[in-house]
Amino acid sequence: MKEKRLVMYMHAGSGNHGCEAIVNSTCHMIKEKPVLLSYYGGEDKKYSLRELCDIRGEKSFADHKLAHICYYLYRKLTGDEESFIRYRYGKTFREDIPLAISIGGDNYCYDNMRKDLRLANQAFVRKGTRTVLLGCSIEPELIKKPEIVADLMKYHTIIARESITFEALQRMVAQQQAGLKGLRSCDRARYNVPKVYCFPDPAFTLQKKELPLPSGFQEGNTVGINISPMIQDNEESAGITMKNYRALIRYIVENTGLQIALIPHVVWDRNDDRRPIHELYEQFKGTGRVLELPDGTCEELKGYIARCRMFIGARTHATIAAYSSLVPTLVVGYSVKARGIARDLFGTEKNYVLPVQLLRKEEDLTEAFRWLAAKEEAIRSQLAAKMPAYKEAAMQTGKEVDHLWEECSQQQRI
């Protein structure tokens, strides 16, 4: 009898410490040790996941050109698009998998990921596996597209991490159910309708690891700053993001007694926070007030962020590390995830999220920071009042996964 495996898939690798944080925190919530299918398995073994999961690197066609040609020809002849997914997941796909969890995040917001998301979901469902889309943020306009609706409706369960996505998913499900009302009950039974929940991102419960602070990092008197190439790619005025960050650092150095820690949260070669961070550090290192933090695990980076007085962040999970540590935070955002999380925490995203697309003047970020600094204590108090219940709600993700795992296992025993 085959061993039953709980699988996590569509994980991009721990070089993105937000991806690492979602898997890490989810693994700490659930009873079953999962198989983690990762496109960059070596990254996961380097950071915090090596003891938490059975890490299996996906097969890459880039490393097997002949296999790529063979599968391409096979797909052309048969139309079997899912064959690429079966190849990538290798022996795991041949195992007994009652439940498979798609590591949601904002995967659906990227054009280049949606086809793989659809094919993987479809392949698992065809195999008889229940699929869960976990901790997701999806732009509401995307949820209106027929091909995305058709994909989302195949999941057994969808867990949104903020209310904007949740409300859009609820509308989607209601519309689909309305379309089924005219069918006979036996015909309706052939159509899947996913269960939809809204629980905060699992990473709100991420544990922190406090390493010794580097020279110049004054606990409780340091502003943490994170910048990413991703927000630079979404700016509407070329170079405006870096101009704003330079102006902000200059303002802090000249008008406050605060130290500044530049903190990376994604370190992929193709999308590395350390590049713009190092550029800023080189410009301001002579002040003696700015330091550049090294890479670390998601838990170690949270340990640094938690000891900041305030935080300005572009990466979602860097800001989640700050929020969950009661650090007043300004998000330099570009998508639904930043707006939705801020709205759920504070009732509004206004002043808490500065969309990079709205940067016009190089003082825009500085003005937003001045508002944050003026409201610092009130925001910290608000986070302190909100966070215990918010973290408890985040734990519901683990309870739902455990429930589904037990339900799947029981059904297979019957």
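the 2nd protein, sequnce then structure:
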Amino acid sequence: MTIQFFGAARTVTGSKHLLTTASGKQILLDCGLFQGINTDELNQQFGFDPAQVDYMVLSHAHIDHTGLIPRLVRKGFDGPIYTTSATIDLCQVMLMDSARIQERDLERVNERRTRRGEPELEALYNEDDVQKALDQMRPVEYGQKFVICDEVTGMLTDAGHLLGSAAVSLTIQEDGGEKKLFFSGDIGRPDDKILRSPDPFPQADYIICESTYGDRLHEAEPDVKAHLLRIVQKTCVQNRGKLIIPAFAVDRTQELIYALDQLSSEGRLPVLPVYIDSPMAVLATDVMRDHEEDFNPSILSYIKKDGDAFNFPNLHYVTDVKDSKAINDSKEPCIIISASGMAEAGRIKHHIKNNITKPNTTILLVGYASPTSLGGALKRGDKEVTIFGERYPVVARIEIMDSFSAHGDYKEMLQFLSCQDATKIKTVFLVHGEYEKQLIWKEHLHNAGFRHVEIPAMGEKVVM
């Protein structure tokens, strides 16, 4: 069999890895959108023929893992997509939102391309393509073995990264016996505020492992709520400004709401409006409520006492565009939580554009942001940023809380991999990370006993 890496190879986004069995069956692991600057043309081509793909297994619903599935379907893929039921529900929300964003952003992209004398790009997909993709999804429970084809069986285990997120174990039958391939998806943290900790997984021969934070340790955060409250007090009470938080609509937004809900229940949150300004986040919060089976015991205990972890006085879920614009027009202190988490699309870009030059504004970054994204530029400390093609000086205060990250650091990832006998692993392939960080992660893996670690390049094919 072979595995070929068509995304998230020495980069973070665009996850897609194509397994081809000895008989020629093709199984795609994830099909994500490349995100960031100058990715428009990159998302137009797959590097393989979608019509030749027979099956797909999906790890979780984040757009850098799912965002090109509708285009895959548009270009001829008509096979089953195996994933968890929570992931299917989230894809309903996230991919429909992505289709609408694609159409809006394409107009601006093509305007610029026309001015430069370049040909226009076609829409990646539309809502009809999304619905076709959703119709092809097949729910699989954690720990349940399922048959993909005569040669391959699969099993999903909880990755603890996102509601419904899964790591993928595949058993491939060949003439010489069987081979076991494991795909980590994105590895969650053992102390997530909402989700259960990642589960151990069966012994593998080969591992495809993410690398996002392979070079770092998350800073210890003894009291996340206290840190968040200090930022709220400084920005909204002392400076009478707006606290703007770019946050992924799923999981990150709900973690923030849960933290603010607890502060409100404890009587410590100042009386001021809190806006969840993202139609997708509003829908995703409802999906979260529908899948409490993925929650950890701590939040389940809180819900039993409080009734709802995602609702408190002065919390406003905003869906209407006019209401969103009214928030920008208002001069009152407030908290605005809006998608996307990397500040690359959606209403958050408008909130940042309208407030980034105001010294009493705070932009709080609470998760990973690709270096080429607006969130990445702010996190890096750039003094000027480009928003909707215009340059803006960064006058607003930038704060960072990495304790909200859903990606495990290198110690947490090593803990996740500790269920494996490293001497039995033939090769670990590192994906979903920046190359310099992957080199450091590779050394950590060597020190933990994983002898053969490779960092595949884009398009590289490996025979196993």
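The radius of gyration is 22 Å. The chain has a mean pLDDT of 94.
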